[in-house]
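Dear support,

We are seeing what looks like truncated structure output for some complexes. This example has two components. We would appreciate it if you could run it in full and send us the complete C-alpha cell output so we can diff it against ours.
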Amino acid sequence: MLNLPVYLDHNATTPCDPRVVEAMIPFFTQNFGNAASRNHPFGWQAEEGVEQAREQVAKLIGADPKEIIFTSGATEGDNLGIKGVFDMYASKGNHIITCNIEHKAVLDTCKHIEREGGEVTYLDVKPNGLIDLQELEAAIKPTTILIAIMYANNEIGTIMPVREISAIARKHGVLFFTDGVQAVGKIAVDVNKDGIDLMAFTAHKMYGPKGVGALYVRRKNPRVKVTAQIDGGGHERGMRSGTLNVPGIVGFGKACEICMQEMESDTARIIKLRDKLENALLQVDESYLNGDKEQRLPHVTNISFKYVEGEGLLMGFNKNIALSSGSACTSASLEPSYVLKALGLGDDLAHSSLRFGLGRYTTEEQIDFTVEQVTGTVNKLREMSPLWEMFKEGIDLNTVQWAHH
Amino acid sequence: MAYSEKVIDHYQNPKNVGTLDKAKNNVGTGLVGAPECGDVMRLQIEVDEATGIIKDAKFKTFGCGSAIASSSLATEWLKGKSVDEAVKIDNMTIVEELNLPPVKIHCSVLAEDAIKAAINDYRKKNGLEELQFDESVVH
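Here is the complete output from our reference environment:
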C-alpha cells in the first residue's frame, strides 16, 4: 500500500522512532529531575538516564563515554568544536583549514574566527565533491591548529576520505574536527579507526529528537581540550554549561542504540531503494548525478534535470512528496546551492537539482510513486521550457545573449 | 511557501503554452531572464495586421511556479488587446491577480518585461521605432 505523503528529505531531519519517544516519556513526568541535583532521588534518576545515554552515544562511534559532551545540536557542536579549539590553542597558532562545501554552521563559524583575527583556508573540492589530499597537506603551515572537514555532505551525500585526512593531520600535529551530522547512525563511524579528534553530531538526523546533539572530544592520544563558549554552572566537565536536556539526551541515547543494532539491515534495504530510484531517474534524458557515485552515503542521491527549474519541479508533486532542491527559489537567498556550484556545476544545473534523502520508513511503493511523479513532471515542464526547445533545436545556450536580471 | 490557488491553477493548467512562427512578420518574440538566474521566459504575440489586435499569444517558461503562472496569465490578458493597450500591462496587476508574495514579485516583472520585449520585436520587424521603457522596478 502506498503511504502518502512520501517523505524523502531525511537529510533535513528524520521522524522520531516510536521506541525513542517511549524511552523519553518517563523523563518528562516521573523522572523529571535536574541531572545536576546530587542530593535526592529525582536528580539521581535523571543523572542515571543521562549517563546511560552517554554510554549508548559513545558506543555508536567507538568512543569513551567521558569523551561525549552533550549539546543542543550540531550547530552548537560545530561552534564549540571549532571556536573552542581556536581559543584553547591560541598560543600554538591561529590557522584553520576547512573546505567550501561545509555546512553553514562550520563556514559561518570560520568567518567569525576570521573576524577574531584567525586565518582560514577554504579548500576547493573536486568535481566529485571530495577534497584533494595533496592540496590539504600543502595548505598546512606552522600556525595550523585545526583541520575541519565534514564526514559526509548534506546535499550530495559524498563521504570525505576521513582516514586519509586524519593521517595527514596526525603527521603534522594538527587536530582534526569533523561535522559528522549526516554520517553518524547512517554508516559505521569509529573515532579511533577514523582518527577523529573532535566530532559534532545530532539526534534528529538519526530518528532521535530535535534540540539535542553531542560533541565528541578526544581524551587520549592526544588529550584535546576546548574552551567553553557558554559560561555557567560548569556542566559537561566545564565545556558546556547549562541544565541538561534529560529527556532529549535519553532519546538521543536510545536512537544511537537502535542505529547500532539496525544500521546494517536498514542500510542494505535503503541502498537498494536508493539505487532503484537513481537508476530510474537517470533514465530521463539530460539528467545528471551530482557528486561521487561511490564515496557516498547509502540513502542519498542528488540529481539535476537540465532545462527545468527545481522549485517549479517540486511544485508538480510537493503535496505528495517532500524533498528539497538546490535552486535559489526555494530559499531566501538568490544564489543557487553553493555546494553544487563548488562542484563546478553551472548555475543552470544547480537550479535544476533535486535532493532525495531516503530513510528507515521509506517503502518500495513510495519509490515507484516518486519515479513516476518526478519523471512525469520533468517531461511536462520541459514541454513548457524555452530552454528545452532551444536545446532540441541544437542551439548552444552558452552562446545566447541573455537579458540578465 | 504556500502558493495561491490561482498560481497552482495556472501551473497545473497553463494557458497558451507553445511556439509561434517567429519568422512571420506579424509575430513578436520576447525572451527575457537567464538560465543562471533560474528564470527564462519567452512570450510571443501574433498581431492581426488589419486591426492591430493581438489575435494569439504563446509562452514557454523555465522557472518556478510563480514565473509559469505569471507568463500564463500574461498570455491570457494579451489576447484580444491592441498592441497599444498591451504595452500598459503593469506587473503589479499580475501580482494582485495571482497574490504573489514579495519574494516572487520579480516573476511578474519578468512577465511585464517579456510583453514589452515581444511588442518591441514586433515593432522593429514592422519598421516602427522601438519603445523606450523605464527601468523595471526590480532587477
